[in-house]
């Protein structure tokens, strides 16, 4: 503890704010709430607090500010960059109890969500209203809206629907001093200076704690169709993307390697989609607006086959078959999580994906032949996931150090393509020291000044992002 307040007095004051049962001190709870899916850092939080309202969050933050206690906001802890890890006796502020959905407005097509609302919960609510929340990813059953906003999560349908940022019309945020700010109030147009809402989106909890959001919904798509294509040459993936985009509106264009598919088949005990293996696979989803759309997609498939761009292909005949095909892509992260993987979530412009992936893959294979690499990603928006798997015989710390040593060389290649070191998983602890590969000195200096202005004591998620 810092200051004059004892740990026991601090704990008692927290219990008064949120209730005794919502202040957790057991070691098992500390380790659970102090860690995220990255599994690359040792959790060491001071205490875990689970408030039930924005007002309770504000009271907890005020108490922490008075006693110089750092705060790590915690959602579904599905992050992969160490952004929600408490490693240095911070208070973990779990937002999972702020999980109400309220104030649905059918005219505005908006709904208010607590930060602890599970992504899938919002998706299901939208469906019940005959509407649609399109931000989707493999962790939608456990990730939370607050965390999605804090990292500006993307997912599998960015190509059609954009990022989380595009669906947030209002935010409630608690600042580092415990002040409550309500931003934009669901407005579509608001030309009154700086839009602070967007400052907090993607800030990873370093500028303020998001407790509530007004989320926009949309019209559901027609029944989707899914194609799974087997591709032997990486260059042909770009050819397929370009041609299909010229013929139909795509909802998703996903990519994964044979090595990634092998992990999913083993983990989920699935049957291989094709008799013969290929180096790469492309999964395409499009809205079945009419028979003409399907005809265009099939003609595009035939054209790609005639030009030798693909080896084989499947198209779904029902929603169930579409979901079954998606399993091959969505099961990848789950199937490799136990290794654990060292993840690089990176992005270049879609036109450069093939050239960039080849350059990085050649580098890893030549310098680290003992490592198994798993590639997959949202190639339609230029987002690739490079996963390096820890060999069973290698200690975790040695594995982390070896991967970290490779990062500068990988990021130099990325910088030559004007790419981003983090496309959708945030920076967290994992990529904090490499921010200069994607941001200029001027940008980083400005980011530091914003952090200093909003959190001068550096109490909100310290050590993350910058």
TrEMBL record:
Keywords: FAD, Flavoprotein, Oxidoreductase. Its cofactor is FAD. The keyword Oxidoreductase applies. Gene3D superfamilies: 3.30.465.10, 3.30.70.2190, 3.30.70.2740, Uridine Diphospho-n-acetylenolpyruvylglucosamine Reductase, domain 2, Vanillyl-alcohol Oxidase, Chain A, domain 4. Pfam families: FAD-oxidase_C, FAD_binding_4. Residues 41-220 form the FAD-binding PCMH-type domain. PANTHER family: D-2-HYDROXYGLUTARATE DEHYDROGENASE, MITOCHONDRIAL (PTHR43716:SF1). Belongs to the FAD-binding oxidoreductase/transferase type 4 family. This is FAD-binding oxidoreductase.
């Amino acid at each position: 503890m810092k200051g004059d307040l004892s740990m026991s007095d601090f704990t008692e004051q927290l219990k008064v704010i949120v209730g005794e049962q919502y202040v957790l001190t057991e070691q098992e709870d500390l380790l659970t709430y102090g860690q995220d899916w990255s599994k690359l850092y040792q959790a060491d939080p001071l205490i875990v607090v689970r408030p039930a309202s924005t007002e309770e969050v504000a009271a907890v933050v005020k108490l922490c500010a008075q006693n110089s206690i750092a705060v790590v906001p915690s959602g579904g802890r599905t992050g992969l960059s160490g952004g929600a890890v408490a490693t240095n006796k911070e208070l973990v502020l779990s937002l999972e109890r702020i999980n109400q959905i309220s104030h649905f407005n059918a005219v505005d097509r908006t709904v208010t969500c607590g930060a602890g609302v599970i992504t899938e919960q919002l998706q299901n609510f939208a469906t019940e209203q005959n509407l649609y929340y399109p931000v989707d990813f493999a962790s939608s059953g456990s990730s939370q809206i607050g965390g999605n906003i804090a990292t500006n999560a993307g997912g599998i349908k960015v190509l059609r629907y954009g990022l989380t940022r595009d669906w947030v019309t209002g935010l409630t945020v608690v600042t580092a001093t415990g002040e409550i700010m309500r931003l934009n109030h669901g407005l579509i147009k608001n030309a009154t200076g700086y839009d602070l809402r967007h400052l907090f989106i993607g800030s990873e909890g370093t500028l303020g704690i998001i407790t509530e959001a007004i989320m926009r919904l949309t019209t559901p798509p027609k029944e989707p169709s899914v194609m799974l294509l087997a591709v032997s040459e990486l260059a042909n993936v770009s050819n397929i993307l370009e041609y299909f985009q010229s013929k139909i509106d795509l909802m998703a264009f996903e990519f994964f390697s044979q090595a990634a598919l092998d992990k999913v088949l083993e983990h989920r005990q699935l049957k291989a989609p094709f008799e013969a293996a290929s180096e790469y696979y492309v999964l395409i989803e499009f809205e079945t607006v009419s028979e003409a759309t399907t005809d265009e997609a099939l003609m595009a498939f035939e054209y790609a086959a005639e030009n030798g761009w693909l080896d084989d292909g499947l198209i779904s005949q029902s929603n169930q078959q579409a979901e079954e095909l998606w399993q091959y892509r969505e099961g990848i992260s789950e199937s490799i999580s136990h290794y654990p993987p060292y993840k690089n979530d990176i992005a270049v412009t879609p036109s450069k994906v093939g050239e960039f992936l080849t350059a990085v893959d050649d580098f890893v294979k030549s310098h680290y032949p003992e490592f198994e690499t798993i590639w997959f990603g949202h190639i339609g928006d230029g987002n690739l996931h490079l996963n390096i798997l820890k060999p069973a015989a290698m200690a975790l710390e040695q594995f982390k150090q070896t991967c970290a040593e490779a990062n500068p060389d990988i990021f130099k290649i990325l910088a030559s393509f004007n790419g981003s070191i983090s496309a959708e998983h945030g920076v967290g602890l994992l990529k904090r020291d490499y921010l200069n590969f994607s941001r200029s000195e001027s940008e980083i200096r400005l980011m530091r000044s914003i952090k200093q202005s909003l959190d001068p004591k550096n109490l909100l998620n310290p050590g993350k992002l910058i």
